[in-house]
């Protein structure tokens, strides 16, 4: 029962007690008053009868006495009249029952016992005592009068009580309104939302409670913000170039390894390696501050070019070297983008008159990565190409083998399109294993299709074609439909997890479809949806709305590849995911790299402080699991726990 209802019930109980006591006292007083009236009434009647009947009593005229007494008795106000002579012999007596009305309840009669007194009057005639008259008034009259008064009192009490209850309810609601705000604050705080009450109540006690709650909310919010700033500062120190804000050499190489060696999902890509010649000479010419500003502009231009593509990797490998990896496109478009990049940097250099105009402002080497190329091979080829560009004094250098893109046969494109459009997709899964009891927490689904030889092919072979044909949304829909059909057919196994693309989340048709689908299927606690951190940061408000829809349907929500985006992770406050999956590039050397270990541990602590579970990706060694378990990781995922299995 709510506090409001308890207060109303308590007040109502007090009112009932008060009215009951008042009613009893009033009835008791009324009883005494009626008894006095009955006594007076009986005494008056006895006096009148004694005066009138005196000669008849003296003559023992019983006929006249009877006639007279019956005439009075028949009016119904008397219970007994007894006439006796001087010797105490009864001349005439008449009695009747109390004759209590049927309208008076028995319980009231039992509670209010009334016994009217017998009033007597000695009768004298011619100065001698001739007899006595005894009169007792009827008790039924008293009961009827008492009950009528009590009934009216009760009626007024019920009427006034209803008015009082509504009035009290309104007044108490008005007084306790700040407590409703405190309740909302507490509920919001449990959901990692920070709400303050701007209007403080006038009641001193409530004002103190609201003020204390506001201080607590501010303190919790400040603690989270300070923790977030601390971890983001740590990330910048360990993985971000201090000057340009791009990923540093360590982070860039880790991301390359994650995409090319582990996930193998990047596909064909274009690697842009940029070198600033004579950086020391530039420092001498411009001075440190202006030289640093030039480097920042170069980094900004590189980042703006890379952010036009998804996925992308961009970073600063050394003081003079930058690198970006973007998906391959049309050869002419790629070369045009590279020329635009060079022109933008050259435009920036024109603001620095001290820079020597001899030779290229920067050297750019463009190489191509393929599906079967490792991260170390890509970096090796890029460094060889930039060395050639420097030696040949080229502004933009293309190796002879560069073609901008690897052409995909039309037959393969048709095969992939047919498989996706006809939902000829089969699913494999990779489990997330609990770090506490080694049970399966969830099963992340991996989409696969059959190639032209009817053999399963990896995502690396068909995902680039799917993206090229604009079918990624159709692929996500096909995977979801198969997953929901599987869940409808069985109640066994851990929850399924599906990683949706950025294109699907930003499609109105897809979001309408998924909202309808989750309402029509019993998926509560059996399905999770993941979104890549980069996709989340593209539109935090839209993702927050999408996450709210999933939460109402009981579907879990997670952020994949968490912790590597330069924008930090303060968005967790708005999104409130159920879990995060820490990017594999951060966990790769967690057991032997102090910086990685401290950073990952901080991410786990930050997630847990918000009630978010933390899982680690790309776990391949027992030593990794041991280190992560020591940091209180909730679960791990990777080839250590086995290769992907078919969902049966």
TrEMBL record:
<keyword id="KW-1133">Transmembrane helix</keyword>
<dbReference type="InterPro" id="IPR032244">
    <property type="entry name" value="LapD_MoxY_N"/>
</dbReference>
<dbReference type="InterPro" id="IPR043128">
    <property type="entry name" value="Rev_trsase/Diguanyl_cyclase"/>
</dbReference>
<dbReference type="Pfam" id="PF16448">
    <property type="entry name" value="LapD_MoxY_N"/>
</dbReference>
<feature type="domain" description="HAMP">
    <location>
        <begin position="173"/>
        <end position="225"/>
    </location>
</feature>
<dbReference type="InterPro" id="IPR029787">
    <property type="entry name" value="Nucleotide_cyclase"/>
</dbReference>
<protein>
    <submittedName>
        <fullName>EAL domain-containing protein</fullName>
    </submittedName>
</protein>
<keyword id="KW-0472">Membrane</keyword>
<keyword id="KW-0812">Transmembrane</keyword>
<feature type="transmembrane region" description="Helical">
    <location>
        <begin position="154"/>
        <end position="176"/>
    </location>
</feature>
<feature type="domain" description="GGDEF">
    <location>
        <begin position="267"/>
        <end position="400"/>
    </location>
</feature>
<feature type="transmembrane region" description="Helical">
    <location>
        <begin position="7"/>
        <end position="26"/>
    </location>
</feature>
<dbReference type="Pfam" id="PF00990">
    <property type="entry name" value="GGDEF"/>
</dbReference>
<dbReference type="InterPro" id="IPR035919">
    <property type="entry name" value="EAL_sf"/>
</dbReference>
<dbReference type="GO" id="GO:0016020">
    <property type="term" value="C:membrane"/>
</dbReference>
<dbReference type="InterPro" id="IPR001633">
    <property type="entry name" value="EAL_dom"/>
</dbReference>
<dbReference type="GO" id="GO:0071111">
    <property type="term" value="F:cyclic-guanylate-specific phosphodiesterase activity"/>
</dbReference>
<dbReference type="Pfam" id="PF00563">
    <property type="entry name" value="EAL"/>
</dbReference>
<dbReference type="InterPro" id="IPR003660">
    <property type="entry name" value="HAMP_dom"/>
</dbReference>
<dbReference type="GO" id="GO:0007165">
    <property type="term" value="P:signal transduction"/>
</dbReference>
<dbReference type="InterPro" id="IPR050706">
    <property type="entry name" value="Cyclic-di-GMP_PDE-like"/>
</dbReference>
<dbReference type="InterPro" id="IPR000160">
    <property type="entry name" value="GGDEF_dom"/>
</dbReference>
<feature type="domain" description="EAL">
    <location>
        <begin position="409"/>
        <end position="648"/>
    </location>
</feature>
<dbReference type="InterPro" id="IPR042461">
    <property type="entry name" value="LapD_MoxY_peri_C"/>
</dbReference>
């Amino acid at each position: 029962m709510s506090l409001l209802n308890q207060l109303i019930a308590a007040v109502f109980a007090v009112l009932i007690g008060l009215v009951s006591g008042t009613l009893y006292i009033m009835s008791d007083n009324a009883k005494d008053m009626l008894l006095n009236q009955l006594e007076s009434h009986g005494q008056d009647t006895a006096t009148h009868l004694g005066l009138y009947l005196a000669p008849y009593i003296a003559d023992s005229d019983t006929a006249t006495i009877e006639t007279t007494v019956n005439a009075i008795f028949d009016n119904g106000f008397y219970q007994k009249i007894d006439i006796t002579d001087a010797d105490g012999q009864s001349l005439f007596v008449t009695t009747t029952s109390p004759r209590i009305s049927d309208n008076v309840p028995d319980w009231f009669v039992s509670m209010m016992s009334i016994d009217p007194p017998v009033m007597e009057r000695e009768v004298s005639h011619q100065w001698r005592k001739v007899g006595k008259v005894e009169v007792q008034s009827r008790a039924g009259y008293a009961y009827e009068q008492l009950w009528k008064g009590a009934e009216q009192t009760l009626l007024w009490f019920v009427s006034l009580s209803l008015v009082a209850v509504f009035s009290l309810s309104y007044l108490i609601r008005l007084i306790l309104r700040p407590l409703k705000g405190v309740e909302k604050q507490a509920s919001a705080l449990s959901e990692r939302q920070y709400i303050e009450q701007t209007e403080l109540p006038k009641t001193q006690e409530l004002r103190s409670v609201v003020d204390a709650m506001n201080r607590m909310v501010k303190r919790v919010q400040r603690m989270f913000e300070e923790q977030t700033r601390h971890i983001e500062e740590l990330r910048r120190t360990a993985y971000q170039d201090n000057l340009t804000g791009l990923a540093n050499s360590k982070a860039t190489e880790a991301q390359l390894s994650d995409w090319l060696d582990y996930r193998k999902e990047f596909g064909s890509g274009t690697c842009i390696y940029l070198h600033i010649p004579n950086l020391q000479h530039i420092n001498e010419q411009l001075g440190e501050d202006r030289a640093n500003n030039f480097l920042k502009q170069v980094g900004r231009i590189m980042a703006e070019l890379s952010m036009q593509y998804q996925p992308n990797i961009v970073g600063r490998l050394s003081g003079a070297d930058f690198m970006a990896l973007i998906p391959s496109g049309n050869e002419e478009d790629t070369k045009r983008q590279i020329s635009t990049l060079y022109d933008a940097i050259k435009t920036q250099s024109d603001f620095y008159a001290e820079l020597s105009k001899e030779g290229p402002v920067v050297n750019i080497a463009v190489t191509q990565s393929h599906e079967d190329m490792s991260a170390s091979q890509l970096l090796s080829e890029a460094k060889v190409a930039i060395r050639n560009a420097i030696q040949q004094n080229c502004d933009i250098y293309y190796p002879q083998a560069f073609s901008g893109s690897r052409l995909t046969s039309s037959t393969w494109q048709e095969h992939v399109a047919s498989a996706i459009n006809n939902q000829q997709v089969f699913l494999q899964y990779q489990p997330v294993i609990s770090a506490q009891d080694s049970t399966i927490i969830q099963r992340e689904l991996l989409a696969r299709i059959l190639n032209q030889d009817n053999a399963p092919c990896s995502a690396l072979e068909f995902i680039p074609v799917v993206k090229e044909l604009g079918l990624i949304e159709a692929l996500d829909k096909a995977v979801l439909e198969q997953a929901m059909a599987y869940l409808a057919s069985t109640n066994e196994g851990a929850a399924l997890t599906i990683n949706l693309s950025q294109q699907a989340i930003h499609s109105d048709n897809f979001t309408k479809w998924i909202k309808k689908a989750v309402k029509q299927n019993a998926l509560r606690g059996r399905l999770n949806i993941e979104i890549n951190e980069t996709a989340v940061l593209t539109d935090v408000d839209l993702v927050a709305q999408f996450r709210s829809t999933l939460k109402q349907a009981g579907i879990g929500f997670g952020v994949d590849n968490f912790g590597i985006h330069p924008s930090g992770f303060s968005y967790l406050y708005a999104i409130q995911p159920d879990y995060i999956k820490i990017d594999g590039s951060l966990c790769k050397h967690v057991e032997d790299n102090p910086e990685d270990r401290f950073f990952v541990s901080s991410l786990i602590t930050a997630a847990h402080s918000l009630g978010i579970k933390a899982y680690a990706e790309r776990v391949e060694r027992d030593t990794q699991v041991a280190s992560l378990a020591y940091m209180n990781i909730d679960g791990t995922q990777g080839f250590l726990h086995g290769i992907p299995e078919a969902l049966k």
